[in-house]
């Protein structure tokens, strides 16, 4: 019996040590990323493929020059991008022909693609002019969150729509989000007019966020998916509820609209971009670095606790899920009204999300909670 108690005590002590190391690493990593929202690799520019001239990027703080900007992140989308762009530009051109005040731009953010995505994107710039279709090249893969952030920061629209390159949601569904945003803005503007006696409003100046949602398809999805996928989906919803709170049922739909004022607040503060963390504890750091040179080269941080080195390594891997959750969290922090609108959605082959992303998702959401709730991550108002 005494032996069992000794084993139990050692086991409990081991759990406490591991938990302490994990929490310490989380706090250190949150501290390391405290200014992550301010990081910009290099000045962004657009290249006109016809004249080969570089066109300076506008910035989100500048006044709007277009009615709507569509931001499409693309990573190795050579095959799926053309169909999505054909449908999108055809729809936008038809609206522009019917309404002369409807002006648009499509921003394709090439997230370090290794295939012909850049060539495909520039073909559409040549066909439609650099004023309507622009390409931002990130050079290397940063992940979807950073690709969208970069596109948003350099968009010219009064309202900004992010959508996936696979065309899973039909582009004309933007009218559903657009109409709801307009209705809310009119209500807000009407209330403000009553207070100060002034009339008129600008869409770009009132912060509103509209989230496309597939929640209405959940019942059908539950009936057709395998049990373990339903289990993971429910588990993810619970984790999101704990991290960001209630309000949006489907945080993961890639079809989201923001007014310029909302985008300015959100995308200058967003921090979750592109990290997968490998935690390793070892005394011989030099040996570890030599054995894992390819990983360590992407960035690492060393912590020391009582003579034991803890290494947190950031390796390639886009944080697909957490980026959307952080947007919801920030909307609540800023008091930005959020709308959830049902959109049509279809499964498109070639999804890049896999089960190996789950540990990364849990780490990032925990990190987000620690960073914001301890105020290590300060929000710029």
From TrEMBL:
The keyword Endoplasmic reticulum belongs to this UniProt entry's keyword annotation: yes
Keywords: Endoplasmic reticulum, Glycosyltransferase, Membrane, Signal-anchor, Transferase, Transmembrane, Transmembrane helix
Top EC group: transferase
Family note: Belongs to the glycosyltransferase 2 family.
Entry EC number(s): 2.4.1.117
Name of this chain's protein: dolichyl-phosphate beta-glucosyltransferase
Single GO term (MF): dolichyl-phosphate beta-glucosyltransferase activity
Reactions the enzyme catalyzes: a di-trans,poly-cis-dolichyl phosphate + UDP-alpha-D-glucose = a di-trans,poly-cis-dolichyl beta-D-glucosyl phosphate + UDP
Compartments, record wording: Endoplasmic reticulum membrane
Lineage, top ranks: Eukaryota, Viridiplantae, Streptophyta, Embryophyta, Tracheophyta
InterPro entries in alphabetical order: DPG_synthase, Glyco_trans_2-like, Nucleotide-diphossugar_trans
A GO CC annotation given for this chain: endoplasmic reticulum membrane
Membrane topology: Single-pass membrane protein
Keyword Transmembrane helix assigned: yes
Domain annotation Glycosyltransferase 2-like: ranges: 69-191
Originating organism: Linum tenue
Pathway(s) served: Protein modification; protein glycosylation
């Amino acid at each position: 019996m005494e032996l069992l108690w000794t084993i139990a005590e050692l086991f409990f002590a081991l759990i406490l040590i591991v938990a302490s190391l994990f929490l310490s690493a989380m706090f250190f990593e949150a501290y390391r990323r405290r200014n992550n929202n301010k990081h910009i690799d290099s000045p962004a520019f657009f290249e006109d493929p016809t004249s080969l001239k570089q066109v300076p990027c506008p910035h989100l703080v500048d006044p709007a020059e277009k009615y709507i900007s569509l931001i499409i992140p693309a990573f190795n989308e050579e095959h799926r991008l053309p169909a999505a762009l054909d449908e999108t530009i055809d729809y936008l051109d038809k609206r522009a022909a019917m309404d002369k005040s409807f002006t648009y731009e499509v921003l394709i953010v090439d997230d370090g693609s290794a295939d012909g995505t850049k060539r495909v994107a520039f073909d559409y710039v040549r066909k439609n002019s650099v004023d309507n279709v622009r390409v931002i090249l990130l050079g290397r893969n940063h992940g979807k969150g950073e690709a969208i952030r970069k596109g948003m920061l350099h968009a010219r629209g009064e309202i900004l729509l992010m959508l996936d390159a696979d065309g899973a949601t039909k582009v004309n569904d933007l009218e559903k989000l657009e109409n709801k945003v307009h209705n809310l803005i009119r209500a807000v503007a009407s209330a403000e007019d009553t207070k100060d006696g002034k009339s008129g409003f600008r869409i770009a100046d009132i912060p509103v966020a509209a989230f496309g949602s597939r929640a209405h398809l959940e019942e059908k999805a539950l009936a057709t998916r395998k049990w373990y996928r339903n289990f993971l989906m429910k588990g993810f919803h619970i984790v999101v509820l704990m991290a960001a709170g209630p309000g949006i049922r489907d945080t993961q739909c890639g079809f989201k609209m923001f007014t310029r004022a909302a985008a300015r607040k959100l995308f200058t503060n967003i921090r979750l971009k592109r990290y997968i963390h490998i935690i390793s504890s070892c005394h011989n750091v030099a040996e570890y670095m030599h054995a894992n040179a390819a990983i360590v080269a992407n960035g690492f941080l060393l912590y020391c606790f009582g003579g034991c080195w803890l290494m947190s390594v950031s390796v390639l891997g886009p944080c697909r899920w957490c980026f959307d959750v952080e947007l919801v969290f920030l909307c609540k922090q800023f008091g930005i009204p959020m709308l959830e609108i049902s959109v049509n959605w279809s499964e498109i082959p070639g999804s890049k999300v896999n089960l190996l992303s789950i540990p990364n998702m849990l780490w990032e959401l925990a990190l987000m909670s620690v960073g914001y709730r301890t105020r290590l991550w300060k929000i710029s108002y």
